[in-house]
Amino acid sequence: MDATTVLAEVSGSIATVGYGLAAIGPAIGVGIVVGKTIEGVARQPELAGRLQVLMFIGIAFTEALAFIGIATGFIFGF
Amino acid sequence: MRACAECFLARRRTGCTDAPKLEPVLFTQAATLIANAESSDGFHAPSIWEFFPDAVLFAGTPFAITRINLIQMLATAVLVILFVIGTRRMKLVPGRFQSVVEMGLDFVRVNIAQDLLGRKDGNRFLPILTTIFFMTLFMNLTGVIPFLNIAGTSVIAVPLLLAAVSYVMFIYAGVKKSPGNFFKNSLMPSGVPWPLYIIIIPLEFLSTFIIRPVTLTLRLLMNMIVGHLMLVLFFAATQFFVVTLSGWWTALGVGTLAFGLVFTLFELLVAFLQAYVFTILSAVYIQLAIADEH
């Protein structure tokens, strides 16, 4: 058995790869949400508290997609 | 595999020129090492079955109680006892313990309920929002407490129950305020040319009445499951590197241990954040349901 066969062998649930792919979109989304919030706070520091609440709501909606990704892995991976 | 490595060494000694490169052999050795350890009692990779432990009490009956159920009961008991003690003899000038309790209650009252719903509606929905927040918080926190080590919310029953409560609550709030307005606001956003309603109404129905409770459940549940799996992975890897492999692998074990500790702190943050997000989303859904116009 050579190195390629040992290392490239895929066993177990392939759904984990799907989750990795599903995490890309929400990752970018959360990045944009947080980045824009920082921008907003830098422009108008007195709104920091209000913007933070909105940021968490935005993050919650965005990252839900990533968690749906994990869930489908568990649901269809078995 | 071992034969492979030995023949490689033998060729090295005899000065053979067509010896394989060093790198693949090292990889192969590492792979064999890991494969061997996995087959024996070495590395225990975390799996989803950790969330379905064997029953401790009443096994076989529909009321079987597992370790996680006991942890949920413990979290509930601690929460109730803390609040009963904290609010039993209220003083005008609060003592240290009372002020901590008041700070927690005030956080939900001022920063979540009144901030999003206004004073009148905020106070109306305050009891249920407070309950949701502290129940989620305490059950999340058991995930990072040593010897408990699993969040009470990491089985679907708790998030599903809380999401159902939140779902019924925002529909109740909207229907009580004005049924026509509630369904019009949530299904037919204004400022859209009428032919588009054919597409928009089903989509809005899906997003408001189906996606909302599902994401509320999944967000909390998956955060707790993933957090637990991550911590188990780090500490199991540490144990594997230091105890099973030992030698130079201990250096990697130090790294995984450090990451495990960092992620424990991260889980502490997540436990609080998820309780906050769950409560604030419930409040936002109520806010949208009782809004007069969009």
Offer a concise description of the structure.
The complex is a heterodimer of chains A (78) and B (294). Chain A is mostly helical.
Structure characterization notes:
The complex is a heterodimer of chains A (78) and B (294). Chain A is an all-alpha fold and 78 residues long. Chain A has a single domain, classed as F1FO ATP Synthase (Up-down Bundle). Chain A has four helices and no strands. Chain A has helices at 3-7, 15-22, 24-43, 48-76. The two termini of chain A are 29 Å apart. Helix content of chain B is 74%, strand content 2%. Chain B has two domains: 1-40, no CATH class; 45-290, no CATH class. The N and C termini of chain B lie far apart (68 Å). In chain B, strand 1 and strand 2 (65-66) form a beta hairpin. Chain B has a two-stranded antiparallel sheet. Chain B has helices spanning 2-14, 22-39, 67-88, 96-141, 157-177, 179-187, 197-245, 250-290; strands at residues 55-57, 65-66. Chain B is mainly α and 294 residues long. The interface between A and B is medium-sized, with 18 and 27 residues.
